[in-house]
Amino acid sequence: MKNRLLITICLILLLVACIPPALSLTATPRPTATPSPTRTPIPPGPFDYNVSVPFDPKIVTETQKDGLTVTDLTYAAHDPSFSAFLGGRTAAYLIKPQGQGPFAGIIYLHWLGTPNGNRSEFLDEAVETAKHGSVALVLQGYFPWMASPLGTQDDRPLIVGQAIELRRAVDFLLTQPEVDPDRLGYVGHDYGAVYGGILAGVDHRLKTAVLITGVPSFADWISFFHIDHDPYASIVKNIDPINFIGQAAPACSNSPSGIPLSPRTWPTAITKPPANPSRSNGTTTSTR
User: N or C: which end of the chain has fewer CB within 10 A?
Assistant: First the structure.
């Protein structure tokens, strides 16, 4: 319950903090530009993708709820060979308030576990924030949710592909005319937070991220799949979120202990996973 309250507070603050002030009828001096914080440029890397691939969205159902439009849909993945069990497509809920906007845009990615280890986890939260003036895209994760790791090099393109699908989710959200491109956020829990660490670091269109119980490396939870940590750590080393989270824009984040952190302190706080790693669903803790 505390995690959900923190998520809602952070995202409502995002909605109101970026609203431009009313225009003045009198001339005012031009403000002195404030230099932006310097970020080390990230060279072209594994999370680059072809932005021209059409989305080809297909609506499954569309309903009205509490003054909102909730659409269950799919759209084409960045590569037809990705998400084979979904026919090369990404499934999501798109939730919109009434009106023309501009509204903040928020992407959600769920945890791996029970209960609600799918896109239903954040559906209620997405509906609640949409009531306050946001457009939400609630994603269904593919790897490792629907395709389990093998513990080999074959996992790398699936990890990279899932991260690219998050970047593509930003693209899809921006095709919605009501969405303000200057007010984009992300919420991820568990593996959703791990992938969010990559997304926040490589895609600076995001202005905030709420990352709940994430870890620095994909190897830190690989034992849940009965795969040895150390060999896997060498396989995923250069695509782990710890390599990218330090480049994230300022954000409201949630550490494994429930203490709000900024992206620049998150790596330090969770550089080492707990000796007995566990994954929390926000109310109870599950160790597998």
Answer: N
